[in-house]
Amino acid sequence: MKISVNDLHFAYPNGVEVLRELSFEISSGERVAIIGQNGAGKSTLVKHFNGLLKPSRGFVTIGDWDTQSHTVAQMAQRVGFLFQNPDEQIFKRRVFDEVAFGPSNLGLSPEEIERHVSAALSRVGLSDMREMHPYDLLPARRKLVALASVLAMETPILVLDEPTIGQDGRGLARLGALIDDLTQQGKTIITISHDMDFCAEHFERIMVMKQGRMLIDGATHDVFARFELLAEAFLEPPQMTRLGRALGLPETVTTVNEFLGAYAKTREPRH
Amino acid sequence: MLIGFSARWPHLPVALFVFLILPLAVWGQLLRELGRTTLAVIFPFALSITLVQGFFYPGATHVIFSLGPFALKEEGLLFAYGTLGKILLLAGAGLLLLFSTHPADLILALVQHGFPNALAYIVVTAIQLLPHMQAKAMAIVNAQRARGLETETNLWRRSRALLALVGPLVFSALVDVHERALALEARAFSAPCSKTSLKELHDTREEALARWAIIVLSIAFIAWQIGGL
Ligand SMILES: Nc1ncnc2c1ncn2[C@@H]1O[C@H](COP(=O)(O)OP(=O)(O)OP(=O)(O)O)[C@@H](O)[C@H]1O
Ligand SMILES: [Mg+2]
């Protein structure tokens, strides 16, 4: 299902224009990471994908639906949305109920709901916590509950607003594996993150936002090779990219594996 | 407020609202805000009290008109009018304070007059918490819509969704309180020394005089009403 954004402008009711002249498309099955400094407008942009915010000018379509003429609840059949702050999402007293909330709104049968919830919980590694109170879990786990409640909707498009925040190494690895797995299933994934290494490992396309505009939009390698432009948006490329450049590697590398490959080549005996 | 409540003349609360609170609001350029909020607060009370008391006031005899087995009675209406007047005055005076005084000023004034720091903090936090909880409720409703809850086309479902939020909101407010307490302690809130304030209060002689006058007047009036029994 294609997302297309056409000359999108947006201002909050207080009149400040937060998004300007955005136009792009995201095809079905793409993995896109949106990066940019605090307040660049990333959250504001993705809230247009499920109609939580409507454009002040221009339009956004998801498949054949214009967000302007559909309710947020209708958009929820196509776009799953993980909020930046899980505490603004979680409201049930049991993890199970929280995760079941979305599927039950889709009008599924109790058996189907049960199946969706179990699958989602096991994906985020919380299968044995389904009876717990969400507030008895650590914040990082609460974020996973919120994520499960979005996964359980089984939408073709997933928008994740900073899923990496507060996750430890294991949580990050699990999240990465989950994203790779969802891509295998053909889902479109759009993630906001401040973790450049995570973006490099799991995303093929990067959008860099600065003050409500799109500064760069391209393949991960190309984007992270542009040190000067990134610095302009107050961002740093992934560690491996910087290390590779410092060592004078001939190509831009973004992940540990790429670095090792490129590094090994430089040490091969020359004939 | 005290004067209005202790008076036996039923028109006094309303009179005080019209001739004291409203002019003060005009003076402070708060009339629109005050008017709108007061109406919103008063209206549900007005409706229910008038209906319930008007029809079911015990011992009432003067029937104004009857509707099948129900009869609207004069005593009931008078009672409703008296009660409403008091609520109007209470809401008006409370809201006037809320709109005209920044919470920080209020807290400082309370503390400088010997009110315990912690208590003052509680009073003001309670006032400030409302908009905070409102914003949070909005955020959760948005999250519910994002998971397929239809609220845009159906007012009934929308209000039900909001009602279902009361529990979780209170709960998360309690969690917040814990964190606030820790944050306050970390900044030496209960340190046993006197505190300085970032803000300065402009408390003029006239204001102090007015306060004393109000207190003396209130006590005198109550005494007169009780003594005059
Ligand atoms: N409800 C709102 N009303 C008015 N202005 C807002 C609102 N929400 C956000 N803003 C402003 O819009 C701008 C963009 O905010 P947004 O939350 O989209 O940034 P972000 O890129 O997601 O930042 P972060 O990395 O901190 O999450 C900021 O300047 C912010 O202050
Ligand atoms: Mg954000």
SSE blueprint:
The complex is a heterodimer of chains A (271) and B (229).
Chain A: E1 3-11, E2 17-26, E3 31-35, H1 42-46, E4 57-62, E5 65-66, H2 72-75, E6 79-82, H3 95-105, H4 110-124, H5 139-151, E7 157-161, H6 169-184, E8 188-192, H7 196-202, E9 205-210, E10 213-219, H8 220-224, H9 227-232, H10 239-246, H11 256-267
Parallel strand pairs in A: 3-8, 3-9, 6-7, 7-8
Antiparallel strand pairs in A: 1-2, 1-4, 4-5, 9-10
Helix pairs in contact in A: 3-4, 3-5, 4-5
Chain B: H1 2-6, H2 12-27, H3 31-56, E1 63-67, E2 70-73, H4 74-100, H5 103-112, H6 117-146, H7 155-163, H8 166-186, H9 205-227
Antiparallel strand pairs in B: 1-2
Helix pairs in contact in B: 2-4, 3-4, 5-6
Molecular structure report:
The complex is a heterodimer of chains A (271) and B (229). Helix content of chain A is 38%, strand content 22%. Chain A has 271 residues and is of the alpha/beta class. Chain A has a six-stranded mixed β-sheet. Chain A has a four-stranded antiparallel β-sheet with strand order 2-1-4-5, with no helix packed on it. In chain A, a hairpin with a 5-residue loop joins strand 1 (3-11) and strand 2 (17-26). Chain B is mainly alpha-helical and 229 residues long. Chain B has two domains: 2-100, no CATH class; 107-186, no CATH class. Chain B has a two-stranded antiparallel sheet with strand order 1-2. In chain B, strand 1 (63-67) and strand 2 form a beta hairpin. The interface between A and B is medium-sized, with 27 and 22 residues. The structure holds adenosine-5'-triphosphate (ATP) and magnesium ion (MG). The site of adenosine-5'-triphosphate (ATP) has 13 residues of chain A, from helix 1.
